[in-house]
Design brief:
heterodimer; A: alpha/beta; Rossmann fold; 6-stranded mixed beta sheet; 4-stranded antiparallel beta sheet; binds adenosine-5'-triphosphate; binds magnesium ion
């Protein structure tokens, strides 16, 4: 999959105990994670969890207080590493005296792109993000969503190996959100790794291979998002002759155990414990009729993992 | 390479924001006023004693040059005070500083853009004033080249200090600090001159200390000394007496000062979180 990545071999992103303090304030406590080349990775967490700060450390905008970060095999902040990175900042702002086209030309030159390549790439991208009719308009007159679109285009100029998007869908209309989804999928199949910060979990769910949940600047859980029951963590069992005293014994494998009208629901750490649970129930004299994995949306998962308090 | 791209953008910004045009329009208005003033003054001096008559045009030229000096300094500060702080505050810097370009290239690119614009402005205004003065009354500046170089150095000083403050303070604060320093140096310069005329050692010390804190006025007064006819200075026909002329050491100090300001700006901007 990562065949077009020049830097395949080294992880797209690798951090170890990455830490940032702003004065006394801990913005990122200890971030350890790895993103493979060609992987779409969702970076989730409540407001103020340290997502944007982490991204800024990866790109060299913010100097870490401690720990290590590498992107595409280079130390974070290295100028060479940034040659193959595309970045859409959280609040995309730009020199608003430039037109859409001039903006892309300027950024392309900063990437060191040659004239011919640049003049081919810029119209292509304006077309992609739907701004071709507005290419000569000053950014000053752009709406928030149009700004976001031009920001997206500048992040793709150099056909990057790693694309970092900090809330790319903020301010976008439904068509724009679909555009972001399509771009992420296209870039991923081109072989680029995508690192996505977003609060729109539905979108993360359909675009990402893996997600990390962070809270207070620490990864508290990483999950892969394969679309099958393997990863389901909640189950419902319909059974007869279930006696309440059997429930206590289930706590070895499961948590959140509830019994309603002969329906038992619980969540487990791993679906591998399901056979054992069934054996246990049958041995206890229950008649098991049906075991149903519960589809847990990413949003449920988020609340389950991060907690309803958010974490501010 | 990156330096030139950024310099070009800084220039384009000034054009697009109509800064360049406004500077040119107000500059032209100033030159016209200056020409008219020079013309009428020369006419009304026709019956004055010849020694005075010979020297007054040079004194008037000095006043014109002083106005150009002040204009250039204020323009430099106003134009560049938003260069870093504005982009840091708006977040516009995020997309640029994450491109494969060093922070130093980003800063030097902007610096180069402003140096170019400021030099062009200074050349037009200085050229305009000297040509008009000569045409109107035959007045010439004594050592125009060295005077011009010193004024150029002064605006470089203002630019570097503004950029340095721009790495740490907001646009408005930056302007207040740099123009405040400039004003303090200006006042210090006058205190020093008056002190020298009245032989007050302490007043001269105050002026020297002000120049050490901000050597802008020293550069101007040295430039004035170089360009002014010695007779004008001796007769105190212009406001720039040669009672206390900044030494070469002070000029050297100013040159080191402005280089250090740029070096510190590069250092702080290179390290700070954006
Ligand atoms: N420059 C700064 N100075 C001081 N504190 C900061 C700075 N930048 C971020 N913080 C703090 O660090 C913490 C993490 O901020 P960050 O922007 O990384 O959060 P986030 O996860 O991106 O949140 P959101 O989902 O709201 O975008 C917050 O508590 C924030 O107040
Ligand atoms: Mg954020």
């Amino acid at each position: 999959m990562a065949s077009t990545c020049k830097s395949s071999g080294s992880p797209a992103i690798q951090t170890r105990f990455l830490r940032k303090l702003f004065g006394e304030k801990v913005a990122v406590k200890s971030l350890t994670l790895e993103v493979s080349p060609g992987e779409a990775f969702g970076f989730l967490g409540p407001n103020g969890a340290g997502k944007s700060t982490s991204v800024k450390m990866l790109l060299g905008l913010v100097t870490p207080t401690g720990g290590e970060a590498r992107i595409l095999g280079f130390p974070a902040g290295n100028v060479e590493a940034r040659r193959k990175v595309g970045f859409l900042p959280e609040h995309f702002r730009f020199y608003d005296w430039l037109s859409a086209e001039e903006l892309l030309l300027f950024h392309g030159r900063l990437y060191g792109m040659a004239g011919s390549e640049l003049y081919r790439r810029v119209p292509e991208l304006l077309e992609l993000v739907g701004l071709a009719p507005h290419r000569r308009r000053r950014l000053r007159d752009f709406s928030k969503g149009m700004m976001q679109r031009i920001g997206l285009a500048q992040a793709l100029l150099n056909k990057p190996d790693l694309i970092i998007l900090d809330e790319p869908t903020s301010g976008l209309d439904p068509a724009g959100r679909r555009l972001v989804r399509d771009i992420i999928k296209a870039e991923r199949s081109r072989g680029a790794a995508v690192f996505l910060n977003s609060h729109l979990l539905g979108e993360v769910e359909v675009t990402c291979d893996r997600v990390a949940f962070i809270k207070h600047g620490e990864v508290i859980e990483t999950r892969s998002l394969q679309p099958n029951g393997e990863n389901a963590t909640s189950f419902r069992i319909r059974a007869g002759n279930l006696r309440p005293e059997m429930l206590a014994g289930l706590e070895r494998w499961a948590k959140g155990i509830q019994l309603h009208d002969g329906e038992l629901s619980f969540s487990v750490i791993s679906s591998e414990s399901i056979p054992e649970i069934i054996r246990y129930l049958v041995a206890g004299g229950a008649n098991v009729y049906e075991v149903t994995p519960q589809h847990l949306s990413l949003e449920d998962l988020f609340v389950q993992i991060v907690g309803p308090d958010g974490g501010l | 390479m990156g330096v030139w791209i950024v310099a070009g953008a800084a220039f384009r910004e000034a054009v697009r924001k109509k800064m360049v045009w406004m500077a040119l329009v107000t500059g032209a208005a100033f030159l016209i006023l200056f020409g008219l003033g020079m013309r009428f003054q020369t006419k009304s001096m026709a019956r004055a004693p010849s020694l005075i008559r010979g020297q007054v045009p040079n004194a008037l030229l000095m006043v014109g040059l002083y106005a150009v000096d002040l204009l250039t300094m204020v323009m430099t500060v106003l134009a560049s005070s938003d260069a870093l702080s504005g982009e840091i505050a708006s977040g516009a810097i995020h997309a640029v500083a994450t491109k494969p370009i060093r922070r130093s290239e980003l800063l030097l690119g902007k610096w180069l853009g402003y140096v170019g614009m400021m030099s062009a402005y200074l050349a037009i205004m200085l050229g305009g004033v000297t040509v008009i003065a000569y045409a109107a009354s035959g007045a010439t500046a004594l050592h125009l080249a060295s005077g011009a170089a010193l004024i150029w150095l002064e605006s470089l000083l203002m630019l570097n200090v503004t950029l340095l403050c721009g790495t740490a303070f907001s646009t408005l604060t930056n302007g207040v600090i740099v123009l405040g320093l400039f004003g303090m140096a200006f006042l210090g310069g006058w205190v020093e001159q008056v002190g020298a005329l009245t032989r007050s050692v302490h007043a001269v010390d105050v002026g020297v200390i002000a120049s050490l804190i901000m050597p802008s006025e020293s550069l101007w007064r040295r430039a004035a000394y170089d360009m002014q006819s010695p007779v004008v200075g001796a007769l105190r026909l212009s406001p720039f007496s040669n009672a206390s002329v900044p030494s070469h050491t002070m000029i050297g100090y100013a040159a080191v000062y402005l280089a250090v300001a740029l070096a510190l700006a590069l250092r702080y901007f290179g390290q700070r979180d954006l």
